[in-house]
Amino acid sequence: MDAIKKKMEKLANETNEAERRIAHFEEVKAANEIEADKFEEQLRVIQKKIQNMESSYDVCIEDLFNQTVKLEGMEKKASNAEQEVSALRGRLILLQENMRSKRKGCAKLP
Questions:
Q1: Which helix (H) or strand (E) element contains residue 42?
Q2: pLDDT tens per residue, range 58-79
Q3: Chain-centre distance for alpha carbon 10
């Protein structure tokens, strides 16, 4: 009978120890879940920031594209203007030479 009583006490002690360990691990689990929730919130904040940065990046890329198109248009206008100035300069030189030759021709007249 003592053996059964000791066995029952041993089982009761083991049960109490198991329940204590269960309670401890449930506390650890709860603490870990709270920490996981904090990390998930931080992750959501970071993801929101990344999304905002990507949106800003897209806007900047679009603005860069638009400015590049404008720059190409302005460069084309500048090139056309340079060509026109060069053509007018050549025409002016020809007109000046023509005028000199006419003056020389007029000077030779009696």
A1: helix 2-108
A2: 999 999 999 999 999 999 999 9
A3: 66
Q: Could you say which DSSP state residue 9 is in?
A: H
Distance of CA 69 to the CA centre of its chain: 21
Length of the chain equals: 110
CA 32 to chain centre: 34
What is the C-alpha separation between 50 and 53, in angstroms, rounded? Answer: 5
**What is the four-CA torsion angle of 44, 49, 53, 59, rounded to 10 degrees?**
90
Question: Measured at the alpha carbon of residue 52, what is the angle toward residues 50 and 53, in degrees to the nearest 5?
Answer: 65
pTM for the predicted model, two decimal places: 0.57
Q: What percent of the chain has pLDDT over 90?
A: 84
Question: Position of tokens 């800003």?
Answer: 56
